[in-house]
Amino acid sequence: MTILAIDQGTTSSRAIVFGTDLRVRASSQAEFAQGFPRSGWVEHDPADIWASTAATARAAIENARISGRDIAAIGITNQRETTVIWDRRTGKPIHNAIVWQDRRTAETCAALKAAGHEPAVSAATGLLLDPYFSATKAAWILDQVEGARTRAEAGELAFGTIDSFLIWNLTGGQVHVTDATNASRTMLYDIHQGVWSQAMCDLFHVPMAMLPEVRDSATGFGNTRTDLFGAAIPICGVAGDQQAAAVGQACFLPGMMKSTYGTGCFALLNTGGTPVASRNRLLTTIAYQLDGKPTYALEGSIFVAGAVVQWLRDGLGVIHNAAETGPLWDRADPGQQVIMVPAFTGLGAPYWVPEARGAVFGLTRATGPAEMARAALESVGHQTRDLWDAMRADWPEADSSAVLRVDGGLSANEPAMQFVADMLGVPVDRPADVETTARGAAWLAGYHAGLCPGPDEQAVVWQLDRRFEPSMPQDEREARHLRWRRAVDAVIAVA
Ligand SMILES: Nc1ncnc2c1ncn2[C@@H]1O[C@H](COP(=O)(O)OP(=O)(O)O)[C@@H](O)[C@H]1O
Ligand SMILES: O=P(O)(O)OC[C@H](O)CO
Description:
Layout: E1 2-8, E2 12-19, E3 24-31, E4 43-44, H1 46-63, E5 71-78, E6 84-87, E7 97-98, H2 106-114, H3 118-125, H4 134-144, H5 148-153, E8 157-160, H6 162-170, E9 177-179, H7 180-183, E10 189-190, E11 195-196, H8 198-204, E12 213-215, H9 226-229, E13 235-240, H10 241-248, E14 257-261, E15 265-272, E16 283-290, E17 293-302, H11 306-314, H12 325-331, E18 339-341, E19 359-361, H13 369-394, E20 404-407, H14 414-424, E21 428-431, H15 436-448, H16 455-460, E22 464-468, H17 474-493
The structure holds adenosine-5'-diphosphate and SN-glycerol-3-phosphate.
Adenosine-5'-diphosphate binds at residues 9-12, 262-263, 306-307, 309-310, 322-323, 325, 408-410, 412-413.
């Protein structure tokens, strides 16, 4: 038997067929259009999301030379926070999906912050008042689409993050659910009580009648329509993509930490069964929920990591593909120490300044593509160090014996990963299996279906590809990171 993992990401949809040993059997991937209707706005057409998901799932099944009847369980993992509202009767979305990167509700968040609401929001949801999360996005749609609020209150409309929207479509409109990890990104969910928060729904003007039922990350989420894949396949695992990566990296013990370098960078530190309230502007979130028990994490979210490499390619045109940044790093003049702060869509953790924009410091006439590429990659290491410092301050148990597990497209870049190790002063481990996000979703589904072993055994099969040991002298590490902090201060000062 096999397990199908659906990984619906920000720029592409992927489907991967795993054996029950969690080895990849076949996969398929399709990019879809990004909508930028105004500066700071980012939208997806939900029809594209659904069509690319269904098409890649079918293609992966075909590539594996199996049929839907050979799939014992489906696991879903998804871009988080992105918000869809649809009509329960027709299944039709009433607006494009508002993507996690979208900043259109920045003013709403600023006003709520100024009115003193942030402590209550953080206490209930573990999050900060930022446009990143779903609540203000949902309210924006209800305010803009005529009649939507009344219909939502009457229970005619459904709200969902992408997992909910996919499950709704996969089950033919039968099931309106989400899992605890996705719920914990909405800013409407009480992560301590494990229920939707009436106080948050009131504050953000989101009617409770439109919210999905919240379930464990490994449980039954309904069966697929038989006409989709030729069989009614049970959906047994769901988690937001960053949480699924933590699961795929087998970060099952308190103190274990992973960092995923895709478009952005998201670091999660497992803090066990007790939520840790951050004093350093990190997020408290649910890492996974098994058998009704949430495991919590501290999360640092950086909006631009791999995206800075895309900008070198598409914006500056100094590279043709991402992998060229490795050799360019080697050619860069190390004496120049150019600093790039890639705050293209504001600064995320631990600064949270939505108005900030990017800057490059230390340019000379001798600065060329190599120095720019190196500065871009170094920004990833500096940002990870910022998160690391915040995590150690919030949770001193994250001591010097710690290791950072990395994954995501940019983790293929050797000098960048070496620089992360140098900035943190701890080893950085890259696993042999880089499909960690999909693997996490597959494990959740396989675990519930009785096909995969429990967390302890699963942790043992995690395999190392390469360990990056820190080699930069301590005084150099601290001096270089101090210059970065000053550059960030300057970016914030002009925001
Ligand atoms: N060798 C590389 N060096 C630097 N960046 C890379 C490399 N390979 C991929 N990337 C970057 O990684 C990102 C893609 O990673 P991926 O995990 O697929 O992201 P996502 O799931 O967010 O789309 C891109 O932004 C790309 O620029
Ligand atoms: O789709 P990704 O990999 O860019 O991940 C997006 C995150 O889930 C946003 O919180």
